[in-house]
Write a structure and sequence with these properties.
By secondary structure, this protein is mainly α. The chain contains 3 helices and 2 strands; from the N terminus they run ββααα.
Length: 106
């Protein structure tokens, strides 16, 4: 599953406002109007871009904020389940692990 994280999926505008899994990536202000379930948290947008742009050999060399990571895991698993019929067997374990990590940090 590849998402557009360099510009707007609809028009290639680089001034993006939100991320939408079902649309396939970032959307600009003009292209948002036809969608729902948009994510507009700037930190979330930056982190999802970093994850999507990461090369496989570098994927474990950066950290993701635990709150953002938790939300990302939920959003990605919802997308995989609703759009592709893929269910993550370890989702609950990952969510507990992220939640425990966040609890220790706060």
């Amino acid at each position: 599953v590849l998402f557009e994280v360099d510009s707007c999926v609809g028009c290639n505008n680089t001034q993006v406002e939100v991320f939408n899994f079902h649309s396939g990536g970032f959307l600009c202000k003009k292209c948002i109007s036809n969608t729902s379930n948009n994510i507009n948290n700037l930190q979330y947008l930056r982190q999802i871009r970093m994850i999507m742009k990461a090369r496989y050999e570098n994927v474990f060399q950066f950290s993701v904020d635990s709150v953002i990571g938790y939300k990302l895991l939920i959003d990605i698993s919802k997308y995989l389940e609703s759009s592709l019929g893929i269910y993550l067997k370890t989702k609950e374990m990952l969510l507990i692990s992220i939640n425990n990590t966040h609890s220790r940090l706060t």
